Amino acid sequence: MKLAYYPGCSLHSSSVEYDISSRKVCAALGIELVEVKDWICCGSSPAHQCDDLMSVALPAKNLALVRQTDDLKQLCAPCASCYSRLKVTQQRLTDNDLKKDVETVIDMEYPEDIEVLHMLDVVVEKAGTETIKEKVVKSLAGMKVACYYGCLMTRPPKVTGKKQFENPTQMESLVEALGAETVDWNMKTFCCGAAFALTKTDVVLELTRKILADAESSGANAISVGCPLCHANLDGRQTQINSKFKTNFHIPIFYFTELMGLALGIEAKELGILKHLTDAKKFLNERALV
Amino acid sequence: MKVVKQENINLDSSFAQEIAKLSGENVFLCYQCKKCASGCPSRMFMDSTPTELMRYAQLGMVDEAMKQNTIWYCVSCQTCSTRCPQDIDIAHVIDTMRIIGQQKKIQSDNNKLPLFNRLWMTMIKYMGRAYEAGLVASLNLFSGTPTKDMVLGMKMMRKGKLKLWPSFRKPFATMKMFSRAKKLKK
Asked: Of the residues B103, B129, B148, which one is the last residue of a structural domain?
């Protein structure tokens, strides 16, 4: 299987381990990822709240660039925000007037037939959990994982086309196929405050605290995510949360691709897990996964 | 709900019409069921609820809608848009109010979002991609908190998670896109 790949800005910088592990895992599953040539930022958090036309023109330009990348028709976006902006654009450009404006702005033909997939869709639906299960060499037994989806992987369903948007279970089926246990918890689609990470950090600390607290009280010893901003908040802000709220969280946060990589026998170091800010090495050592 | 004096209410649907024109959303469909307010994760920080915001829009209460902090505390999580029984894309309505607010320079106090948006969009325009280290540094500098998140930033840099230098990706391509968009809007 060959897919166009749109990493997005975060995966080239603050969540480089998501990029590394996605590529490694896809290679192991025989999925070829071709990075979209000269891709640009999708406009992520700022565009939709300050410039409506650019908020659809920027993703549209990337979709047009997919067409020029080996004439591929499926695009994989690991970042939940990029995924959402690309899907929103596809939905809004069914309006012909807006489409005409956007084509003027991007000075390219806008392709209507590109299928946009999140990385989780690619591994669960295209590769399949049964195939993944067969390739597991190191079971993740002993891990109790809270699968966290955040907002944009499932919402709004009109855009993502997801049938289970209040209580999704895709990631659970994947994590269980890797041999780990999953927990039933309340916050799997609750917002971490992502877009406010830099501007209203107080909001992020409060919302993230709620998520960590619920995961912990549900008996989870790790959280699995599929969005670079969720990871940055849950992983990077635990120290700040502990000092602000006098809590004592130390929950390792993994991208689901990292968990897959571990189960498929790839070393933690090669997957970039040592780059986490909340140390995961001790946790993996205790379970003989390093 | 906050009590507003009758003489202060200016019933005028031009605000709702402006929102409809910019977003295609009809705020008059809202019948105040409060599903959006109940599910809003950011509610505790807001001056009024998303439900009240929809009512302000219906009644043309522009000041209540635009000068309170409510629209600037929306985290764009799409919970309200997902749950609205009248299928109003409330998050899109709020985005539209923010766009109007930024164009007319109406701001609630101590709000960094317009600056954040401007900086990021400028980066896309001239570099094609976001440059995270530069965004954090310039945002903190211009908003007068230069040392905010410094420890976190240093940790990230040590782990190789923040690139010191931006990557320029065919900058003329995005600059041209922005200028074509500007022409089109005129």
From this structure: B103
Among A61, A89, A118, residue at a domain's last position: A118
- At A205 the pLDDT is 97
CA distance B58 to B55: 5
Nearest CA distance, B5 vs chain A (angstrom): 31
> Does a structural domain hold residue B16?
yes
CATH number of the domain that residue A226 is part of = 3.40.50.11810
Please tell me if residue A39 touches chain B, with a CB cutoff of 8 Å: yes
On chain A, the residues whose CB falls within 8 A of the CB of B82 are 155-157, 165
Name the A residues in 136-195 with CB < 8 Å from any B CB: 151-152, 155-157, 165, 190-191, 193-195
My answer on whether B15 and B85 are in the same domain is yes
Q: In terms of domains, do B131 and B87 share one?
A: no
Picking from A38, A195, A198, the nearest residue to B76 by CB comes out as: A195
Residue B28 lies in a domain: yes
Number of A/B CB contacts below 8 angstroms equals 166
> In terms of residue numbers, what domain contains B136?
113-178
Residue B106: what pLDDT?
Answer: 83
Q: Say if residues A219 and A183 touch (Cβ distance below 8 Å).
A: yes
Strand partners, A118: A77
C-alpha pair distances (Å), B59 with each of A208, B22, B27: 35, 18, 10
Mean pLDDT score, A250-264 = 97
- Is B164's pLDDT higher than 90? no
Give the three-state DSSP class for B45.
helix
Q: Are residues B55 and B132 in the same domain?
A: no
- Which chain B residues contact residue A163 at CB under 8 A? none
State whether residue A4 is helix, strand or coil: strand
* Chain B contact present for A27, CB below 8 A: no
Q: Is 80 exceeded by the pLDDT of residue A53?
A: yes
Assigned domain for B59 exists:
yes
Say if residue B73's pLDDT is above 70.
yes
Helix axes A201-217, A228-236, angle to 10 degrees: 80
Task: Confirm if A41 and B168 have CB atoms less than 8 A apart.
Answer: no
